[in-house]
Amino acid sequence: MPHRRRRRRIALLVVGLAAIVWLAAGPIVDYIGVSLRWATSDHTFLFKPYLQLGDAPGLADPERAEVVWHAADREANWWVEVRPTPDGVWVRTPTPDYRAVRVAKVEPHRVYHVPIGGLVPGGRFSYRVGIGPKTLFEAEARARVPAGKPYRTVVIGDIAAGTSAASRVAWRIGEAHPDLLVVTGDIVYSRGRISEYAERFFPVYNADTPSSNTGAPILRSTLSAAAAGNHDIVTRNFNDFPDAMAYFLAWSQPLNGPLHTVGGKNTPGLEGSSDRIKAFLDAAGPTYPRMANFSFDFGDVHWTVLDANPHVDWSDPDLRAWVERDLTSARPGSWKLVAFHQPGFNSSVAHFHEQQMRLLADVFERGGVTIAFGGHVHNYQRTHPFTFKQDGKGQGGDGHVNGTWAIDRSFDGDKQTVPKGVIYVITGAGGATLHDTIRASRPDTWLEVTARVVSTIHSFTVLDVAADRLRLKQIDDTGAVVDSFEITRPAN
Ligand SMILES: [Fe+2]
After folding, report:
1. Ligand 1 mean position to 42 CA, how many Å?
2. What is the mean pLDDT of residues 87-109?
3. What is the pLDDT of residues 263-321, one digit of tens each?
4. Residue 49 C-alpha to ligand 1 middle, in angstroms?
5. Spelled out in words, what is the top-level CATH class assigned to the domain 151-488?
């Protein structure tokens, strides 16, 4: 008998030890994941090349973009060549420049940023990247579209969760062939770390081959822009997670936002030892904290991308004035669209109390915003057009921003297509676990402003833009259209 008891005790001990090892393995595996990639790649990529807008908010002719890739922190004879038109000649860019990422617990590496120019607005072009005599990577892409030319945008949030749904959605997005991808935050789960970009984002959104299991080669061929969600920038203690805040390292977007001062109010504050913070700031360069808010033009759209996280007080007069100026100074004739993460108007139980973005409703209305896109809530929701009047008390302690709305119920997106007010779209069903699946069939539980909820399947937004018309289609991960509507301009 004592023998059996001892055996049981030993068995329990073994199970206990195994559990401890398993629990501890999570972060270790994260780091090993990055290291292994390095071990197998000599001079090649950590993250393969992809396209970014860079600090180029406005349309231009010729157009420009940035080729970005991440590679080992060592000298190599890197080069980039661009063929601006399909039958043109290859032109070599100046020597690629980089910012080194030397943060703790991640293999030191470099993020190369190479401006490319001479592009025909809306035209097809090719680029290739190599070292010495060797071409390592080649892709085709479409340059930023000029005003007056129709094009397609995909808008989607809450994406790189490492789920099969995330890959399926990315593949479907690739199949939709967008000219621009706009991400409404929660780009990568769950802490916005470099190691998570390595595991969940780049392999899916910049996959070599398209498939419903792997994703699609979107980022190498499509310009993209992203707002920062809570999962992207809420983890910012560099003692615990030295590779956090990778949003500011991976993305290269216009730096025309209102917040320039490190540690200033309304910026995402940095925590941890001064060494760790300095390592992040050195790696981020000018992107932190500026890139959390910005705007850019693409064809007939002026996009304003905002940081909706709670460290920003959108009742701050200076910030509100920046949004107001940004909207009123937009290129005449452009549609004004806004993208941010936490939606103010939400008919789910999940995140219902996070209503801070209602504080900007009046600014959006005065500025002529047509659609404000959000994510955060993992489903699809669309409101009627409406205007919102705050009751004057701002955001209460419970997160609510109370007020009254004037709903335009005559707009149906089909026969009556001129909205009176702003339409708010939540497109947060990009891959993370769905929220409130029951709500789709319970309109009696929705906010009065809500017109449509799709919460039982992952989906993304296709927005076809023309000078006089916006057509929105919500596509689920089987390819079915689950909502659609059209917006036109008022007749003169
Ligand atoms: Fe979120």
Report:
1. 36
2. 95
3. 999 999 999 999 999 999 999 999 999 999 999 999 999 999 999 999 999 999 999 99
4. 27
5. alpha beta
380 Cβ contact partners less than 8 Å away, ≥ 6 residues apart: 425, 426, 427, 428, 429, 452, 453, 454, 455, 459, 461, 474, 482, 483
Within the chain, all domains assigned CATH 2.60.40.380 are found at 45-135
- Does the pLDDT value for residue 15 go beyond 60? no
27: pLDDT confidence band, cut at 50, 70 and 90? very low
Mean per-residue pLDDT for 238-254?
97
Would you state the structure tokens that stand for residue 486, as one six-digit string?
């059209």
Burial class of residue 138 in the structure, from the number of CB atoms within 10 Å of its CB (0-12 exposed, 13-18 middle, 19+ buried)? middle
Q: What pLDDT does 22 receive?
A: 41
Distance, CA 396 to ligand 1 centroid (Å)? 21
Q: Measured between alpha carbons, how far is residue 387 from residues 361, 365, 377, 383, 409 in Å?
A: 7, 7, 22, 11, 12
Q: Which helix (H) or strand (E) holds 167?
A: helix 164-176
Question: Which residues are paired to 230 by β-bridges?
Answer: none
CB 173 within 8 A of CB 156: yes
What mean pLDDT value characterizes the chain? Answer: 93
The predicted pLDDT at position 441 comes to 87
* Residue 366 pLDDT greater than 60, yes or no: yes
pLDDT of res. 73: 93
- How far is 1 from 390, CA to CA, in rounded Å? 74
Q: Which segments of the chain belong to CATH 3.60.21.10? A: 151-488
Alpha carbon distance 430, 454 (integer Å): 12
Among all chains, which residue has been given the structure tokens 């009742």?
Answer: 315
CATH hierarchy code of domain 45-135: 2.60.40.380
- Residues near 444 by Cβ (< 8 Å), separated by ≥ 6? none
Q: How confident is the model at residue 28 (pLDDT cuts 50, 70, 90)?
A: very low
User: 228 CA distance to ligand 1 centroid (A)?
Assistant: 9
Residue 452 β-bridge partners: 382
Is it true that the peptide bond before 289 is cis, omega within 30 degrees of 0?
yes
Show the tokens assigned to 269: 């504050």
- Put residue 263 in one of left, alpha, beta given phi > 0 → left and psi -120 to 50 → alpha: left
- Centre of ligand 1 from the C-alpha of residue 184, in Å: 9
